Every structure is written in structure tokens, then in C-alpha cells.
Records
---
Amino acid sequence: MKKLIVTIVLSGLISSSLLGQFFIIPIILPYGNYAPIYQCPTSSSLAKEYIQKGIEKHETNIEASIVYFKAAIAEDSLFCDAYYNLIICLNNSQNYDSALKYVDLAIKINPSKYWVRKTKGLLFMIKNDYESSSKYFAKQIEIQPEDPLWFYYHAISLIELEKFDSARKSAISMEYLLTKADNIYAHSLGLYLQARIKYKQQDFNKALIVFNQIYDDYKNEALYNYYYGVCNLKQDIPNEKKARKHIKKALRKGYTKFDPEIIKNLKI
């Protein structure tokens, strides 16, 4: 999978695929589809068999995958990896409410599991329920205030709610924690959030200036390319050629939350 843009030193990012360019994500990219994984801390041979069959069916018949993963859970209700794979498939098939239900069940089984806690907030984001995601990530910050990823997603949620002052505070906290952990991307990720604020404020000229400063760090990431392309299109002197190039790159990399009018106007 693509390189990990921000390596969170404290407890790692999430593990390997999910929810919108989500597990082993470059931290800026919580959207898209990923494939399930096969890890089996279960004593049930039948549950293992169901997991394997579910993974085999994932690419060709996601509904069958869902059935197999649910069967694995029925065989071993404490089998966390079965929940993991089921949630992936429910997300990929856009059954977000069902995915949230199983995330809650997984949290009850293992409330300390890092990926489960991340997943719940990201599902709210994928549903565009930023009110819920902002409250959820604020709660996680209270529980684990040394984890910069909580601040990152909290900032993104607040940006989408147009609560820019609060978003800036979370962005500053995130950058401070990453800098404290000697993370080389601390400053560029802080700039990314600044650009996102300008983008949401529709100040595309200033957003583009900041996006240009971090181009080398994020030029291969789908979400960055989409925003970069839109800024090139909507700046005072539009650059349609550059906009088309980067938006097409975002789509090739699996970005799906695009404005259909932009796609239509650029004839992509």
C-alpha cells in the first residue's frame, strides 16, 4: 500500500486497511476502500474457515463476504478480527450504520483496541456526520491527550463544521505532539490543516499557496490531489489543465467524495 505519510510514534496508526483510505492511511486520507486482512487469534477452526472464505469473496462478491464474516462472529463472538473484516466490508458497501453497530460491539469486546476506537470516529466522518465525529474525537482527546491523531481528526471535523478557531487549536496541539515525537512531517501536516481551513473558507488562492508548500510530501495522495486540483480550478486565474491533471490523479487513486459538477465541467 502507499507510504505512511505520518508515522505516529506513540501507538501507531491503524493497522492495515479500512474506511476510506483508512487503515495504513496516509493520515490525511480518511476516505476510500481497502481489502480485508487475515489474522486469526481464535481457537475455532470453523471461524477461521469462514474468515478465509470471506476474504476470498471480497473482490467478487462483497455480500457473500459479509455473510461469511458474520458467520465467523457467530462461531466466536470474541473474535476481534472477524469484526474488523466485517466492518471493512460494510464500509466498502456503504452500509455505514451497520458498520457502526459492529464497531460498538467490537469496542465492548476490547475497548482498548486502537483501530476500533479510530474506526468509530472515521465512520462518522465518512457519513458526513461531523458533529458526531467532533464530539467523539474530543472525548478521545480527554482519554488519550498525548495522541496527535485524535487532534488531527478533531481538527478536520471542526473545519467541516466551519469552527475554524477551535480547529486551529487542535491543529496546533497535533503539530506540537508530532514535533515532540520528532516526526519529520509535523510542520507539513500543520500546513495541510491550514490549507484545509482556507479551502473550506473558499479562499482558494491562499489555500493553493499553502498546498504548494507541501506538494512534495503529499503529491501522491488522493485527497491532496483533489483539493490541489480544485484550488487550481477556482483560483483567480484558473488553470484548468493543472486542475484536470490532479483531479484525475485523485480519482485514479480511489477518491470518491468529489463534486460531480467539477468532474462534468472538466470533462473527466
Note: The CA atoms of residues 52 and 156 lie 36 Å apart.
---
Amino acid sequence: MKASNRAKDLDCYDVLLDIERLQKFNGFDIKKFICLTNNKYYSTTIQSGHGRTVSLKSGTVYKENEAIVPGWADKWKVNRDKPIIFSKQVICDWISKSDWYFLKIEI
């Protein structure tokens, strides 16, 4: 497995961006984010390089009101490099069953 994988780094960023969007979404009493995958990379890999700032590894904690700046900001030509700021702490706590992994976050 490569230490840095651009596509997986962007996947992780997209997950965090979706969580940020859900936190800003008003009008519902119950909000949940669920991510399901058969790729253990996301739940177990300690990312390095540009992706280390957007890791989804189980046990990763993102504090509220603390900017998450992707390591590739101003380096790659992608439109996914703005800082992500959570209004509430987010803990990546993956659950595995057979060859499947899921991340469930109460928003």
C-alpha cells in the first residue's frame, strides 16, 4: 500500500466535508452520518504525507472550531482544499463486521 494515495486522501476529505455540511444543516432533531466500505484502509491506515491531516483512522478525534487544512492545499490542482471546521467534536470510531467497515457519527 502506498504511503500517500491521492484518491483515498480526497475520499477522506470528502467524508469530512460531508460531516461539516450535515452539522450546518438545520431543521432536524436527529442527524447521522454513515459511511460503509469494504476497504479497511480508511479505518486502519495511519496516513502520511498530504493525507495525514484528513485521516479517518479509527480513534482520530477532530475538535470543534479547529480548522482542518488538507496537506495538499495550494499544491494540487483540485477544488477540494478549503479548510473544514466542525461545530461539534467528531470522533472516527469504525465498527467492522466480516469484511465490511462502517463509520457512524451522531451529528
Note: The chain has a mean pLDDT of 91.
